[in-house]
Amino acid sequence: MRDLFFGQGITHTILLLAFVIGIGIYLSRFKVKGVSIGSTWILITGIVVSHFGLRADPELISFVKEFGLILFVFSIGLQVGPGFFHSLKSGGLKMNFLALVNVLLAAAVTWCLAALSGVDLKTMVGVMSGAVTNTPGLGAAQQSIIEVASAGGMDPVEASRTASELGSAYAVTYPFGVIGVILVLLLCKGLFRIDAPKELAELESREGRGAHARRVYLGVRNPAIFGKSIYEILQGFSGEMVVSRIMRGEDEIIFATSDTVLHEGDKVLVVTSLDEADKVRDLFGEELPMHLEDWDKKDHHYVTRRLVVTKSSLTGKKLKDLHIRAAYQVNVTRVVRSGVELVARPDLYIQMGDALIVIGAEENIKRVAEEVGNSNDALAKPNLVPIFLGIVVGILFGSIPFRFPGIPQAIKLGMAGGPLIIAILLGHFGPKHKITTYTTMSANLMVREIGISLFLAAVGIGAGENFVSSIVNGGYWWILYGALITMVPVFLTFVIARFLFRLNFYQVCGLIAGSCCNPPALAFAQSMYGSDYTSVNYATVYPLSMFLRVLVAQLLILISFA
After folding, report:
1. Cβ count within 10 A of residue 209
2. What region does 112 belong to: left with phi over 0, alpha with psi -120 to 50, or beta?
3. How far, in Å, are 71, 244, 307, 345, 432 from residue 229 at the CA level?
4. pLDDT tens, residue by residue, 216-251
5. pLDDT (0 to 100) of residue 101
6. Pairwise CA distance, residues 204 & 438, whole Å
7. Does 55 or 14 have the greater pLDDT score?
8. All domains in the chain, ordered by first residue
């Protein structure tokens, strides 16, 4: 029993991790004035129990930390994959520019603190790595010191001592690096009096309930389309559009087919992308102040249903290959994938788990339901093969070294960046290549929460042993410097993003968490403010931010030898 509670074996490690996670999650329920730091309590609990002598095998803890992080970022990547490239195209350049600003501000604060305090810049790089929660940056900095020493630029013994000091500085500043970002988000929310529910409502309104598709009610006023069939109109339109129903006169509702001819004065219900709503409006001539209820109360023959694709054999097929309109007289207006609504383009590849929003006669919709499956039981079993093979590819991709002239150490995306990118690509391109990546939202959330909980518990247990002693022996200055490196750039980036670039609060939360490579901050924003909007922005900036954090750490080490 002594080994079970105070040893360092596998059973003890599992027991300790479970205890830390359980207590941390329990503490996260408590709020002060409606505010909680959420799963960060797991990190704090890990530090406390480790400080009081409950330790675990360092290699096991390192494995749990990396594996937990992989699970977390991979689940995020699968979730945001379907909408990632749309967000990258519409706002990715702006987001990544702001991420670059955040990274450079952190480097500037680090250099200034080293110059003003007299602390060796190399040690300050360790402080910065912990302050921005960037383990790959620490590893790259330590390796750069060793390589400089091997080239004769530094005594090997001194190089080893310096590299070890970087690790100590990193361990001391890392916990506040996690908490500091969360504190800045809370500070900015209160300081600038941000109404989170109002921000969410505005974002949902602007994004069409978080989707890429929206309904538009139009009047046929453009003489160029009078007397033309819907097929002819679609042939001449370069964007995304589905004509759902037509209202002729006051009461007649017409089911739209390719052969339906439009007349002057017709009212048309169209589903299109948010970006192309203006083009559609110009094509038909006029947008009408109508609502869906205006159609439904007059439309007694047709109903709208949500059908789920549960036949894996349909993965990778184009929507037009199902011939739903021609064979069943049913229109597919939208496809919902991972919570993202897409316009039902004929060439859209579908996959298992997609939800088809259809309209047609009840009997015809039942026939379509049989065609696509529409069985919730079929979705209960997760598709684990693409997930684990995706992690394999992600780790391999993250291990590829990228070399640049003048940089002694190759740069890698690491255990987090590689799996995240591969998960995004799987989520977006998987259906096209007949790869089923569907997991239910609850399953995705379970994997995500398990991952971040394991990660935080491992970090806390690993940092707790030397945490207090490092502070007592002068490390409190490292904590102060780390707090400045964490909070000053984040605060300035928040102000720039919010007031210069006019970003929504949820967009800024994702930007900050991603550019700081800080998964706990993302988890906090999602749980505290009840929205997954932050995930898309997090994934948009994370790969470049990870790359820049590693590059900047190495550049500062080289500068310290100049």
Report:
1. 12
2. alpha
3. 50, 14, 28, 18, 30
4. 889 999 999 999 999 899 888 877 788 888 988 877
5. 95
6. 24
7. 14
8. 208-379 (3.30.70.1450)
**CA 133 remoteness from chain centre:** 17
Asked whether 457 and 64 are in contact (CB, 8 A), the reply is: yes
Amino acid occupying residue 187 = L
CA pair distance 193, 449, nearest whole angstrom = 30
Which of 192-196, 380-384, 415-419 bottoms out in mean pLDDT, i.e. has the lowest? 380-384
Structure tokens at 413: 């995306």
What's the rounded Cα separation, in Å, for the pair 382 and 439? 6
Buried b (16+ CB within 10 A) or exposed e, 124-133: bbbbbbbbbb
**What letter does residue 224 receive in the DSSP assignment?**
G
At residue 438, φ and ψ (nearest 5 deg) are -65, 135
- Residue 361: the pLDDT is 86
Query: Token digits for 151?
Result: 């080239």
The neighbour count for residue 53, using CB atoms within 10 Å, is: 9
DSSP letter for 228, please.
-
| Beta bridge partner(s), residue 188 | none
Question: Under a CB-based contact definition with an 8 Å cutoff, are residues 300 and 271 in contact?
Answer: no
Q: For residue range 355-402, what is the model confidence (pLDDT) as tens digits? A: 899 988 888 999 999 998 888 776 667 677 778 888 999 889 888 877
pLDDT of residue 56: 83
Distances in whole angstroms, Cα of residue 306 to Cα of each of 214, 294, 357:
16, 20, 5
Mention every residue, 6+ apart, whose C-beta is less than 8 A from residue 93. none
Name the residue among 28, 26, 20, 43 with its Cα closest to residue 520: 43
- Determine the Cα–Cα distance for residues 474 and 552; give it in Å rounded to an integer: 26
| The token pair that represents 19 in the structure block | 């205890």
Structure tokens at 336: 């919902």
User: What is the phi/psi pair of residue 194, to 5°?
Assistant: -85, 125
Please choose, from the candidates 215, 212, 241, 243, the residue with its C-alpha nearest in 3D space to the C-alpha of residue 338.
Answer: 212
Summarize pLDDT for 153-181 with one digit per residue, the tens.
667 777 777 776 776 787 788 778 888 89
Asked if residues 455 and 65 have their Cβ atoms less than 8 Å apart, the reply is yes
- Average pLDDT value for the chain: 81
pLDDT, tens digit (0-9, with 9 covering 90-100), for 258-284: 889 999 999 999 988 777 888 899 999
Separation between Cα atoms, residue 541 and residue 547, nearest integer Å: 10
